[in-house]
Batch of 2 targets.
Target 1
Amino acid sequence: MKIFSKQLISVIDQSKTQNQKGKIERNSKPDSTINKDTKHERKLSRSILSLIFILTATLLSAQDDLLKELTDEPVESETIATFKGSRVINLQSVETRPKGTLEFIFSHRFGRINEGAYTLWGLDDAYVRLGLEYGITDRLGAGIGRNSVDKSFDAYARYKLLAQHPGKMPVTVTALGTINYRSSPKKGEGIVPVTTRDRISFVGQLLIARKFTPGLSLQVNPLIVHRNTVNQQYENNDDVALGFAGRQKISRSIAFTAEYLIRLTSNENNPPAYERYNAIGFGIDIETGGHVFQLVFTNSLGLIERAVVAETNGNFWDGDIHFGFNITRTFQLSGKK
Amino acid sequence: MALIDAVLNKVFLLIWLGVVAFSAQAQKFALSEGDITFFSEAALENIKAENKSITSVFDASTGEIAFAVPNNQFQFEKKLMQQHFNEKYMESEKYPRSTFSGKLYGFDPSYSGQQQVKAVGKMFIHGVTQSVEIPGVIEVGSQGIVVKSTFTIKLADYKIKIPQILWQNIAEQVEVTVNLAYKPL
């Protein structure tokens, strides 16, 4: 209708100017009659032409207009699939599992590649974390796991505080809290007696991510690790770190990932037994239906935040690299309508 | 000459008013309730999804019909499947809507009751526009108009590729059912 009224107005304007022109012509000294007639014919044919033109345009555009009415508003949607898995490599991602979805996470790190052929470049040794994560709501999830490194148990909850939404919210923000219990050494077998309290540590983190394009997602996550008991000569009870992670899809189902963790509270000049490094990782995500396979290379052996942040003792650039993978399998436990 | 001028201008104005009036009296119907579902039958898995966020306009005077479907509103039983549908197959961030616009042939607005019709027009899915002919049934009642149609879509026609590894899970063509109930605008 808007278009019609505009056209109508323009035609009225046109006819007005034609009228005025006519008046001027009539008032002015008359030219020869033939000349006047030609002018009139020209004017007439112009009007008819414009009429035909606009009529055709109206008829042609009618169908598209009908569709246009329906597609003026942008489609509302929260951004999906910022990352494929609940982990990027070692670090958690902002993703939460949809309500009623159970995810089984099987993570695996082999020994160091620079151990050479004798251990088949580390493949002789394997360190495993078995984990489960469940989506209580679309935004709230909880998980448990056990890592063979230090025979550690972990339990965590995550909540998606903000979800990226084009035009409304630039980032997704997820808060995550973890409690960790290391069961090694066995009771009574340690050099010094170890209490339950000594075995416990906590991790709090905020994950902030943005999916910049359908292929590129970046994440930054500040985290704090508190260990109840440490060797205070070389270690801190509280360690603060900043994690960076990214994903670039290279096809519909395959993506490159990378992450880097900067420790903001690290002790320098420790003896070799307490030398710590920033965790680095590179990986490839491959997704097939309900599975995500993540093939990774990282200098961190541990698979839980406490170990990744505070206990990474491999130097990536010296070749202290572990090959490994994270495999997730998703099960839909309850249907959602 | 002045008289002819004046008359001509009046005539044009009248024609214009006529065009405007005609378009205003076009019998447009807005969607009161509608849903679109699709069903994919494959060796390992049957996949079904339903979308109630369909929007549509129908012009009974011309038979023109258009509908638009926000792709991300298809509800699947498995949420992960829904995510894959949007992310990997429909690429909903790039192509948020699937649309159809065209004309119903064989429709007589004065006849109440069921009529077999054919919709001819353009289907837009996943960035690809295809000319299609879709059979359907239209029913004019006292409350409004109901349009129903079931048709198949070949994924390859719209450049939706199925990974080799999932060919047993995803069918090459899906059956789409559209139910649209209109009320006068």
Target 2
Amino acid sequence: MKLRRMLAIVLKELRQLRRDRLTFAMIVGIPVMQLVLFGYAINLDVRHLNAAVMDQADTARSRELVAQLEATQVIDLSYRVATPQEVDDLMGRGKINVAVVLPVDFETRLERGDRPALQLVVDGSDQVVQASARQLARFPVPDAEGWTEQVAPIEVVNFYNPERRAPVNTVPGLIGVILTMTMVLFTAIALVRERENGNLEMLIATPVSPWELTLGKVLPFVGIGLIQVTVVLVLGRWLFAVPVRGSLLELYLAALVFILASLSLGIFLSTLARSQFQAMQMAFFTFLPQILLSGFMFPFAGMPKVAQWLAELLPLTHFLRLVRGIMLRDAALLELWPALAALGVFTLVMLSVAVARTRKSLD
Amino acid sequence: MTGDDNSAPVIRVRGLSKHFGPVVAVDSLDLDVHPREVYGFLGPNGSGKSTTLRMLCGLLHPTSGEIEVLGMRLPKEAEGLKRRLGYMTQNFSLYRDLSVAENLGFLAAVHGLSRERTRQRIEELLDRYWLTELRHQLAGTLSGGQKQRLALAGAVLHEPDLLLLDEPTSAVDPQSRREFWESLFELTDAGTTILVSTHYMDEAERCTRLAILDRGHLVADDSPQRLMEALPGRPLLVECDRPRQAQQVLENQPGVIALAQIGASLRMLVEDEGLEKPLSERLRAAGIEARLVPDTANLEDVFVAATRQPRQTAGEAP
């Protein structure tokens, strides 16, 4: 082995790398992105969960306790409601994660100390929300020093996932993650492969139009995506007894909309990538923020505002709202229309950019 | 241009140029290709053969100039042209992971052939191009010659009036090449016009008309026979026992266009007559006894002579 030869190869590699701007950007970009995203997003000290308060006692002490809970900053009291139905409704639509319920006999309970004086109703479909609610429940309630050890002054009630089982939380999200991975990656690679293998040159001389080609290559993936959804649902049911509380048809409709959004992202990436390998790199580049910021790993409400804004741009964020709503909270698809609309807008934007780029790259 | 053919040309090109950034790939090209011709594009790599072919089938847009193919203006009417045009790419561009029959079936569907016609056409082509036995084999596992026969079958499946072939025989053995050219003449007999690019002299010689391209310029355009007759230089055979040393001596001598060792002798192309004497004296001075015998012109001489001439500044500036 000759040192000079080896160094010549090193030099050549460095030169190639300098010209391959994508790889270069990713070498730097991925660590930076991971550091920034993880640094902000892994934040189990969750703050500013959206909450509603139902204060049926409405006494000086109940109001004071509510004010003290809000002062912890763990919850933001965005809604004041009067009935349990309203709590149900807000949580079903994903507007709140937590509800603080003070019963009519709040004062009496405080004095007697035999039953919990306050209920925290928690959206059990999110594990981290559960955890922070349990923390909040340890908040020292004033004037309750004589409380017996068996009965805590604050009781946590888990909506949607009373047994606090992890699969119930993860499986719906997993549908979104798996679809993201396969739909984006496969379409991008499949479309670029045509160009890379020279098939495209032959096809351009035939009457096939670019859109026939694109749609023809992408449509099979819609079917593949729906099969993947089915597999996850069946396995989730069978292995972990994960329920589908809402309408199965609506769940599939939501999945279909999300599949289209992911495919459009794949088509867009295929117009950027010059090789299958590049397509793969780009697809992975889009997975990272989707998985970290969408609410799959960390609760959306706990993220800083900037991360939340970014997350609003990602299709997986919206799909998680849909799939968790339908599967766990029996929400109706139309109730969740903002997420549906967001996916529609994302699809349109991606496809328009892809069309504009395809026209340009004809020459 | 001979002008003796009064039928309308299949391809008519005027002042065609293509620039890729600062690079001029094709420079003010004029071409006329007539029906049933096998029109050859001869030129070294990078001479603009592929670029011209791609512009003729609407794959690339010209920077300037006019193209009319089968009576249709390009690039405006490219879509209509695609139904009457067959294009065979330089590299095998059918699907390697599909079988022979599947590839043809796919193309038939793309061209909108009816189910009945598809079946009939595929059987016909499999038979004509000796692919019947291989119909279920994956295209990627075929040999070079088989792949090329499949590609030709794919390009003529929809019975195009014009066939464009971009270096079709670059990955093929001589036997397959000969068979391939027989297939091409079968097609012209049936009325197809063929435009084929190549850098093989033996293939160029089979064309009914030949255009020689050099760095984007058309430097010769006539039948191979007339090109050889009109050769500006004279080929000489240098017979001596030390051809390598003779080559070194003769290189860069005034009047010498090209030198090539052919077996034990040396073949030389010189500008005009009367150079035999000074050149053999030059050899003798270097201690080499040689006999200079005139030889008949071949297409390689034409090619060498045509591509060495300095650019004449014909045609308008782009």
